[in-house]
Amino acid sequence: MTITLQLNGDAREVDAEPGTPLLWVIRDELKLTGTKFGCGVASCGACTVHLDGDPVRSCQTMIEDVGEAQVTTIEGLDSKAAAALQQAWVELDVPQCGYCQSGQIMSAVGLLTVNQNPTAEEIDDHMYGNACRCATYQRIRAGVQRAAEIMEG
Amino acid sequence: MNTQITRRGFLAGSAAGATAFLLVGVGANGATAAGPAEAKALNPFVKIGSDGTVTAIVKHFEKGQGPATGLPTLIAEELGVRMDQIRYEFAPSNPELYANLAFGKFQGTGGSTAMANSFMQYRTAGAAAREMLLMAAAKDWSVDASKLSIEDGLIKGPGKSASIGEFVIAASALEAPTAPKLKDPADFKLIGNSKVRRLDSEIKSNGTAMYAMDLHLPNQMIAVIKRPPRKDGLAMSFDDSSSNSVKGFIRAAILPNKAGVAVYAENTWAAFRAREELEVEWDMSKAENRSSEQIKSEIMSALEAKPTYNVLKNEPGPMEKAEKTVEKTFYFPLLAHAPMEPLNCSIEATEDGGILLHDGCQFPTGPHSALAQIFNLPFEKVQIKTMLAGGSFGRRATPTADYQVEAALAFILTDRSRPVKLVWSREDDLTGGYYRPAFGHKVKVGLDSKGDIIAWEHRIAGQSIMKGTPFESFSVHDGVDHSSVEGVSDTPYRIPGQSVGLTDTPKATSLLWWRSVGHTHTAYVMEVMMDLAAKTAGKDPLAFRLAYLKGDKNQDRMAGVLKLAAEKGNWGKAAEGRSQGLAVHKSFGSYVAEVVEVSGNAEDGVKIEKVTCAVDCGIAVNPDIIKAQMEGGIGYGIGHVMRDQITLADGEVEQFNFPDYEPLRINDIGAIDVHIISSAEAPTGVGEPGTPPAAPALANAISAASNDLHIASLPMSENGVSFS
Ligand code: FES
Ligand code: FES
């Protein structure tokens, strides 16, 4: 069936069967590969995108449930928090293999949008669902705090 | 021309036909070679364009450990360019040109050897390029080359300066210097500079980094494999009538080796769905049918019998003279690697009748040979494009080239008009994979009346990783697979009366090295036993260890990291309500000590508050990458011992996805503080050595917090420890 998605500010028409996870529409149909496949069962966070600004796991978001919501992927990020996080990630060399990091950034943007000065504990609580097999957690924590600093200016 | 990912996503070298290049390489014998084009005998490590672009050609793949920054650092240092003036490409697959010097004529990454085997090669290439450019400029400017230098990519001489690009054409006509002069380490600007940043952080933070999983070849098909529920089952027939109702399903076919059924589809989701609908009849007569309990009891009974091999070929120490003895039997379960990017690769036919593999390829020579054989092609008709890899921890380097062979077999069943991208799901990864073998150790330590060790009887039983693989001759000597005993038989501790027995047990399912190989279990046993022996002797664990680290440089370096970690980690002065544990281990030529500080206890819940680490890996080329590798290695070691294991029930793997094989999470572990010993020794590994001491340091901390509960079977969560 044909579905119109509001993706990164544009209306995009896609052909997908009901029950198809948003993840695979984004990656295979729209060829936006910054959003990653890690587990498919909402347990790693590699596939995190925003629906109307809120981080969700796109591997467990069915295409027919997206509706009119604005979908934002790592490619479509355009906010002060996103720019600060990406700057901090490069400054602190957060990524190792990097495969989880799109998802980490998407989740962290969600956090900094609602809490501009999170404590280490608040970061842990919010980022818990984003696994990093390379265990870059210490730098993720530092990166979020550094981004908060950058945002303060 | 190779088109590879670079920092800015360029297609290197292909933009302007007018760009000329200077290419400089260094052979396995140390001889330099240079020229204007990619001549057969030349293995360029650096390519300098007449437009001034400098590209390091990296012979190791990048799975996060940093060679795509480390090797360019060596070139940039010797050549005289800044890090923002150099980019990287991955080398093509060619074992003649890009062998890992630690592996013989074999191209590959592993054993934490990337920096160690490249250090002189890449520096020499950079230095040779510098000398050639200077010679060309000297001639043009009619000055002595000794008056010239290269800084920030500019050739500077008395009253003159020019971009290195201007002299690329002239330099490429010169002979490469046979022994280019390397920089004095005192003059290093980039090597050892903790401000040097990774070249791949930006693309990995904005979603533009391209992993093999992200490749969309025009007109590609996705293939997933329905594998037997137990290892080594064979596909006899299948029924795809339900799969046919999945839109996008193309067809299914039994792989030529019957190891599974390939399901082809237009997209990944359709492939997964169609596979779910596929009914397969399996021949399970040769399939793995053991359970974890059986594997464990095989190992445990082997520990009770006389070992097959007396590894040190010596008499055991005088246990009968001991005043006190302490004894412990350990068990380590199967573990999966679970790199974040599930395994995948793409295969396509090339116009000249060859085959092109796109892969986050760890051991190019393995799949290269396998593909040449499968497609019956001469070696040079197979090409491999190495892409970024989303982690490996050993999994992408199999002696059988398992997943690349699967892709090739799936491709050979087609008419080859469409590229095939093979994709594994996480379930495929955990259930159909290769595992760290299970191992058991039994150790008895005898102490005299002064509490000094007089006998250390150590038995190891488990499944050899290397026997029966092409790597056997590297690792197996007189029947002993060194990878089963490394870290025990060659410990830097000078242990009086140490004897080591080894018994191989039958292989259970498919085995593979896992980040730090044998050290994953040997470090744990050595360091938990050291603590136990110290406690039995009534001595401080730090002082007790140091007593056996007297001798030459090997002992001094191990003692050095131990003292530094103890000092920085406030050993003996744990904060109120906290307990500490200590461990030290040498692996891959590097020495690492760690102090873990926990709060709580095994019964009420342990929290890992802080880890302090000291590492001696020789010259620290990229200090911040070394720190990152220690942080990651510690997390990897600790995450698995906390709660992960792969278990088999009548041969079937019982873990399917992350909820059953729970990764370390951000809230599991507090701050990690890494200190690097400054050293002039040749650089050694960093990707693996952080892992081995992490688990025993945690175990020793938990023991200190929990009435001497020495955890001898893993994972901890299944053996009396709760975490909060
Ligand atoms: S792929 Fe969606 S949470 Fe793992
Ligand atoms: S950086 Fe490799 S999984 Fe996070």
Descriptive tags:
heterodimer, A: about 150 residues, alpha+beta, Ubiquitin-like (UB roll), DNA polymerase, domain 1, five-stranded mixed sheet, B: about 725 residues, Aldehyde Oxidoreductase, domain 4, 3 domains, seven-stranded mixed sheet, 16 helices, 30 strands, globular
What does this 3D model show about the protein?
Chain A is of the alpha+beta class and 153 residues long. Chain A has two domains: 2-76, Ubiquitin-like (UB roll) (Roll); 80-152, DNA polymerase, domain 1 (Orthogonal Bundle). Helix content of chain A is 38%, strand content 15%. Chain A has five helices and five strands; from the N terminus they run ββαβββαααα. In chain A, strand 1 (2-7) and strand 2 form a beta hairpin. The longest helix of chain A has 16 residues, at 137-152. The mean pLDDT of chain A is 97. In chain B, the strands form eight sheets. In chain B, strands 11-12-9-19-16-17-18 form a seven-stranded mixed beta sheet, with helices on both faces. A five-stranded mixed beta sheet of chain B has the order 2-1-3-4-5. Chain B folds into three domains: 7-206, Aldehyde Oxidoreductase, domain 4, CATH 3.30.365; 213-285 and 343-423, Aldehyde Oxidoreductase, domain 4 (2-Layer Sandwich); 292-335 and 435-718, Aldehyde Oxidoreductase, domain 4 (2-Layer Sandwich), CATH 3.30.365. The two termini of chain B are 54 Å apart. Chain B is 25% helix and 24% strand. Chain B has 724 residues and is an alpha+beta fold. The chains are: A alpha+beta (153), B alpha+beta (724). Chains A and B meet through helix 1, helix 2, helix 3, helix 4 and helix 5 of A and helix 5, helix 15 and strand 30 of B. One FE2/S2 (inorganic) cluster (FES) binds at residues 37-40, 42-47, 57, 59 of chain A.
